[in-house]
Design a protein that fits this description.
Mean pLDDT: 95
Number of helices: 4
Strand content: under 5%
Oligomer: single chain
Bound molecules: magnesium ion
Order of helices and strands: HHHH
Amino acid sequence: MLSKILKIIDIWKWHKNTFPQATSKSQLIKLQSEINEVVDAKKELRNANNYQMRNIKRKHVREELIDVIITSINCLRYQDIYEDVCIKMSSNKQRDWNTKTMHHKENDNGK
Ligand SMILES: [Mg+2]
C-alpha cells in the first residue's frame, strides 16, 4: 500500500516538474484527449483483421487506458478537482452497486 502511495507522489512530482504551467482546466482537457485516444484505439482494434494485429491493437488500447489513469492521478493535484472527487465519492458511497456489472443499480442496464 505504501509503495503505491509513493508511486502516486512520484507521478505527481514528475507532472509538476514536466508541466509546471498546467492548471486544473488544462488537465481536464488533457484527460478528455486521453479518453478520445482510448476510443480511437478501440476503433482500430475493431478493424484489426488478424490475430497478430488484434494483439498489437489490444496492447495499444491498454496503453491508452494507462494514460487515462496517469492523467487522472495528475488531476488530483488540483484542489478543485480533488474536492469534486471527494463529493462524488461521498455520493457513490450512498448508492447501491451491482457488484457484477459495477454500475450503480438505478443506472444499470444489465451491461
Ligand atoms: Mg495516450
